[in-house]
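Before a colleague's protein record goes any further, I have to sign it off. What it holds is a sequence and that sequence's fold in token form. Would you go through it and say whether the fold makes sense for this chain? The record follows directly below this note.
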Amino acid sequence: MSDRLTHGDWSDAVEDGDLLGQECPDCGTVQGTPKAACPDCGSTDLETVELPTEGTVYTETTIHVPPAPIEERGYQVVVVQLGEARVMGRLTDGDVDIGDTVTLSGFVEDHEGYVAPTFAAGN
């Protein structure tokens, strides 16, 4: 893997059951997906870090009218607080509320081949 976290590197890690993020050595901000620069201070010297695979639901919603060409309805999408970072993904098992614990359970691939993490309700 290169020093700069690419979307391809991030997707490969998700497919392998890992979550990668970036930490800014200048201000300490941690983010859950690849960015070209730190959203807080603008530094481009970001370091790739491993994120926990268990976290807390920061927010959630249920998609009843999905974007085309997705036909599935009534699926839950969550933003998960993983340490200092947040990652969005789909819930595949259970039903959760804000503050519930979830664990990385796999990934889904969309019609264009993009990967997104999936989470399952925790203990």
User: Anything to note?
Assistant: The chain has one domain: 7-121. The chain has a mean pLDDT of 91. The chain is about 5% helix and 45% strand.
